[in-house]
């Protein structure tokens, strides 16, 4: 009696994947080197703890990933839903994780705050007359 293969269980799906490979495959970073550098600099935490590059991730782990520049640093908290060592397209990468509702709300709040800060800036530069008026005002006459 031979067993028929079950199409729902994939033999090629790994049970554990290195952190740098998963972050690259999930498209958080463009290269594995950038993922490695982010992990080493402490921008990736798992369950509140710093991790090493070779840390093996499993389905159900929670990662806090800080991305961006110093003035616009965003933190995403994601739960790993699937594992992959291979980088695919964006729709496939989106199936590897799920961002928490608190993380989404926090990111949207800070994005709104940045937009409100930008409203204080004028849309155009002052013209010659406005510059002269500003210079006169600043000099006090």
Task: Summarize, please.
This protein is α+β, with helices and mostly antiparallel strands. The chain is built from five helices and seven strands.
- Strand composition percent: 15-25%
Shape: elongated
Strand order of the largest sheet: 3-2-5-6-7
Biggest beta sheet attributes: 5 strands, antiparallel
Count of beta strands: 7
Distance between the termini: 101 Å
Order of helices and strands: EHHEEEEEHEHH
Number of helices: 5
Helix/strand/pairing category: alpha+beta
Radius of gyration: 23 Å
pLDDT < 50 stretches:
1-10
Mean pLDDT: 85
Bin the helical content. 25-40%
Write the layout of secondary structure elements.
Elements lengths: L16 E2 H7 L6 H9 L3 E3 L2 E2 L5 E2 L4 E6 L6 E7 L9 H5 L2 E3 L1 H18 L9 H12 L2
Antiparallel strand pairs: 1-4, 2-3, 2-5, 5-6, 6-7
What does this structure look like?
The protein is of the alpha+beta class. The chain is 36% helix and 18% strand. The chain has helices spanning 19-25, 32-40, 90-94, 101-118, 128-139; strands at residues 17-18, 44-46, 49-50, 56-57, 62-67, 74-80, 97-99. A five-stranded antiparallel β-sheet has the order 3-2-5-6-7. A two-stranded antiparallel ribbon has the order 1-4. It starts with 16 loop residues before the first strand and ends with a helix. The relative contact order is 0.13.
């Amino acid at each position: 009696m031979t067993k028929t293969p079950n199409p729902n269980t994939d033999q090629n799906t790994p049970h554990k994947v290195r952190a740098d490979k998963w972050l690259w495959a999930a498209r958080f970073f463009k290269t594995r080197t950038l993922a490695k550098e982010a992990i080493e600099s402490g921008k990736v935490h798992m369950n509140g703890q710093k991790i090493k590059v070779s840390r093996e991730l499993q389905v159900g782990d929670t990662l806090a990933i800080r991305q961006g520049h110093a003035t616009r640093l965003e933190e995403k908290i994601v739960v790993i839903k699937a594992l992959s060592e291979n980088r695919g397209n964006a729709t496939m990468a989106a199936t590897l994780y799920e961002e928490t509702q608190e993380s989404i709300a926090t990111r949207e709040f800070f994005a709104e705050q940045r937009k409100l800060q930008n409203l204080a800036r004028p849309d155009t530069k002052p013209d010659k007359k406005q510059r002269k008026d500003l210079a006169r005002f600043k000099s006090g006459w």
